[in-house]
Amino acid sequence: ANRASAGGREVSRGSRGIQRRFRTAGGKARIFQSLAATHRLLSARSRFFDLSGRAKLRVTGADRVRFLNGQTTNDIRKAGSDVAQESCVLNSKGRLDAHVFLLAIPNEIWIDADAELREKLQGRLEHYIIADDVLVEDTSESFALFHVLTELKPEDVETKFCVRSRRLGRDGWDLWIESVATDRIVVRGPR
Predict the structure, then answer these.
(1) Higher-confidence residue: 36 or 141?
(2) DSSP letters along the chain, please?
(3) Which one of 56, 110, 136, 169 is least enclosed by Cβ atoms within 10 Å?
(4) Does 3 have pLDDT greater than 80?
(5) What pLDDT, on the 0 to 100 scale, is given for residue 180?
(6) 117 contacts 124 by C-beta, under 8 angstroms
(7) pLDDT in tens, 6-24
(8) Position 27 confidence tier, pLDDT thresholds 50, 70, 90
């Protein structure tokens, strides 16, 4: 049975768990969350996920923090290089445009988002740059992104960034690796 509320949220219950659908910005972008699918992922032997297809943006410029603070739901001033900050990008009506993960290093803020938002998110951010010293650059092809579900920080992996991240409801690590280095990655299974 499906139920819809005034906020555009539909909840359907089926044999595969609860699925939530959120409509945003004219109903074009949707986020699907299947509890059963998440359980299957977390129960799998592999704890290594290739997220390289995700959109990856680098934001630079003297006004980058103030600018992104006006575009996202979390305080960008609290973002760091050791933990990925989960946030949302909202439109002027408060509807969801993107669900993103951010990390900040001196002079740069890095963003990763769903692959379907690659062009839309960059264009949406650039649309609001008026008199700000901000540059949004698409680096999706330059970096591979992997997520490892483990408590201990992965070692012996050459990364641009290795940051703690909470994806799939569990703590793990995001590994940002320059694309030219991805052919040297070796994944070892349980011993």
Answers:
(1) 141
(2) -EEE-TTSEEEEEETTEEEEEEEEGGGTEEEEEEHHHHHHHHHSS--EEE-TTSEEEEEESTTHHHHHHTTBSS-GGG--SSBPEEEEEE-TTS-EEEEEEEEEETTEEEEEE-GGGHHHHHHHHHHT-SS---EEEE-TTTEEEEEE--SSPP-S---SEEEEEEETTEEEEEEEEEGGGGGG-------
(3) 169
(4) no
(5) 72
(6) no
(7) 444 443 344 444 444 444 4
(8) very low
Among 124, 8, 118, CA closest to 53: 118
Q: What is the C-alpha separation between 119 and 113, in angstroms, rounded?
A: 11
